[in-house]
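Work Package 3 committed the consortium to producing structural models of liganded targets before the mid-term review. Because experimental data for this complex are still outstanding, the team generated a predictive model from sequence and the ligand definition alone, so that downstream docking and mutagenesis planning could proceed in parallel. The input record is reproduced below exactly as it was submitted to the modelling pipeline, together with the SMILES string for NAP.
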Amino acid sequence: MNLIVAVDKGFGIGKDNGLLARIPADMEYFKEKTMGKTIVMGSSTYMSFPKRPLPNRENLVLTSKPENYPEVKCFTSTGELFEFIRGRDDDVFVCGGSTVYLQLLPYCEKAYVTHIDETFDADAFFPNLSELDNWEKTEESEVVESNGYRITFAVYENNDIKSVQDI
Ligand SMILES: NC(=O)c1ccc[n+]([C@@H]2O[C@H](COP(=O)([O-])OP(=O)(O)OC[C@H]3O[C@@H](n4cnc5c(N)ncnc54)[C@H](OP(=O)(O)O)[C@@H]3O)[C@@H](O)[C@H]2O)c1
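The resulting structure, written out as tokens with the ligand in place, is given here.
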């Protein structure tokens, strides 16, 4: 399993259940990485999408109220989710938000992190992987400018992955 996220300088990822900025180059990157794959998200992130489910991807939603989202496959626990994705977790991208990143981070092999060179007023956050012993930055792009924002695309790898088979 992998994850994908865009963070600002303070590791903020969202505010009022929305994204911090509209950055077309990052949206393209997200699309490129997740197209044709399975995406996992919490119900708040799912509801934040203007158009849902996201097309051409299998949308999986974690929620305690599956009856509210009959159009997608829902899971009421991470254990139930792991049972479903077991054996094909290479093609799964965790897409947030904060609560879901925190729960699934130990099971992710790679983190695709877009760094936005700005500080926003955020109320949802992602951990700084550089401060965690088992995560190592293995790639970082040149600076890209998009919609007035300077961003870089980094890849981090987890050296101590927990297996979804163990659950
Ligand atoms: N910058 C980025 O890349 C990025 C990406 C994604 C999201 N975001 C932002 O992140 C914010 C949303 O994050 P969030 O942490 O508030 O919400 P979230 O993680 O998207 O969703 C939280 C909800 O997910 C469900 N949930 C989580 N873990 C569960 C579990 N183990 N079992 C069953 N249900 C579970 C619960 O839903 P129920 O209440 O339905 O039970 C919970 O209320 C928004 O601002 C969004 O825009 C940013």
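Reviewers should note the following from the model. The first helix runs from residue 24 to 34. These observations will guide the Year 2 experiments.
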